[in-house]
């Protein structure tokens, strides 16, 4: 099967993920070019990745891409996504899809009234460990899940995982909470380890989500959790028959006796990346690249994004969405609500949006 050809609009940190994925799986993906804002940035990207970098939209179009990845800054994502979608290209846009409610509504209008083909690169539900956690919730080990306590990812990512773990879909909710500031020693970063003892003030956000159906989520996040060797990340999901506590399941069986299981991660033979995840003998997750015969894996972030990229073929050829646009818009809408409650100090309530009807 011919590799999917794509171009990346953007030259930031996030853009480099797509280069690593394309380089790891060249028979799946062909990254034709990066589109950069300046010749200096284009030169840097080309030297950094070995992939062509251009500074004009015409050069991107000349690559005849199957789809376009929009990986620009958050304030520009909506406009750039709209621009390339209206040119007729399938677009995979980075998160959030837009920062303003009116822009989210416009993206839905573009899809429903103008036939724009847009997908949102919300990847966390395809992280191997989170995919496995969602499977446990779906398969009934907890009963009907009614509570999530998540301290692992931020904003719209958290909204996505909460909705998937609880199965609340587009259900309306109340959101309230508070922001705190604490000092912490920096130990890691995107550029590597930090060991000079520097201390920074970091915001910790704690929010409660009360869904109209009675389910609840407790969101707790500090941005340093992404890059720290002294701050961990946690997940707890509870239902009437059990709980998933990080990667340990405690559940009551059909005989009403409690049992405990561990999620076991099987790496690729090369030692890189997660190939499969089991609970006992039960398969919870299989890496889609392993299913394609690959013997090398990637970190969870690249694996999840790569899974969405594989989904772009089905989206282009069949119209099957990798991550429904309606869900990506809902995630971004929840981010707006989170921001509103933190700024006002008041509880806010969601309203049914056009993509939820």
TrEMBL record:
InterPro entries: Gfo/Idh/MocA-like_OxRdtase_N, Gfo/Idh/MocA_Oxidoreductases, NAD(P)-bd_dom_sf. GO terms for molecular function: nucleotide binding. It comes from the Bacteria. Residues 4-121 form the Gfo/Idh/MocA-like oxidoreductase N-terminal domain. It comes from [Clostridium] celerecrescens 18A. This is Putative dehydrogenase. It holds the Pfam family GFO_IDH_MocA.
């Amino acid at each position: 099967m011919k590799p999917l050809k794509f171009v990346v609009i953007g030259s930031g940190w996030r853009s480099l993920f797509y280069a690593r994925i394309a380089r790891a799986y060249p028979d799946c993906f062909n990254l034709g070019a990066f589109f950069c804002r300046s010749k200096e940035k284009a030169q840097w990207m080309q030297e950094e990745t070995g992939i062509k970098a251009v500074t004009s939209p015409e050069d991107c179009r000349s690559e005849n891409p199957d789809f376009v990845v929009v990986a620009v800054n958050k304030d520009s994502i909506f406009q750039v996504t709209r621009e390339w979608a209206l040119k007729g290209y399938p677009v995979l846009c980075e998160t959030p899809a837009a920062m303003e409610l009116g822009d989210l509504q416009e993206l839905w209008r573009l899809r429903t009234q103008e036939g724009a083909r847009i997908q949102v690169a919300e990847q966390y539900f395809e992280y191997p460990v989170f995919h496995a956690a969602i499977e446990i919730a779906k398969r009934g080990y907890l009963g009907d899940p009614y509570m999530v306590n998540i301290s692992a990812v931020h904003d719209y990512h958290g909204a996505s995982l909460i909705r998937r773990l609880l199965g609340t879909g587009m259900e309306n909710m109340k959101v309230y909470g508070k922001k705190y500031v604490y000092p912490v020693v920096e130990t890691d970063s995107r550029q590597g380890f930090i060991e000079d003892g520097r201390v920074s003030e970091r915001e910790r956000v704690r929010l409660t989500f009360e869904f109209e159906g009675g389910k609840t989520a407790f969101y707790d996040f500090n941005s340093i959790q992404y890059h720290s060797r002294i701050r961990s990340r946690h997940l707890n999901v509870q239902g009437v028959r059990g709980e998933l506590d990080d990667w340990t399941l405690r559940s009551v069986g059909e005989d009403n006796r409690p049992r405990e299981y561990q999620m076991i991660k099987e790496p690729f033979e090369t030692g890189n990346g997660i190939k499969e995840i089991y609970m006992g003998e039960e398969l919870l997750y299989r890496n889609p690249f392993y299913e394609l015969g690959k013997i090398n894996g990637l970190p969870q972030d690249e694996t999840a994004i790569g899974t969405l990229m594989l989904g772009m073929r089905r989206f282009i050829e069949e119209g099957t969405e990798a991550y429904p646009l309606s869900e990506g818009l809902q995630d971004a809408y929840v981010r707006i609500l989170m921001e509103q409650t933190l700024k006002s100090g008041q509880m806010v309530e969601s309203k049914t949006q056009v993509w939820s009807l």
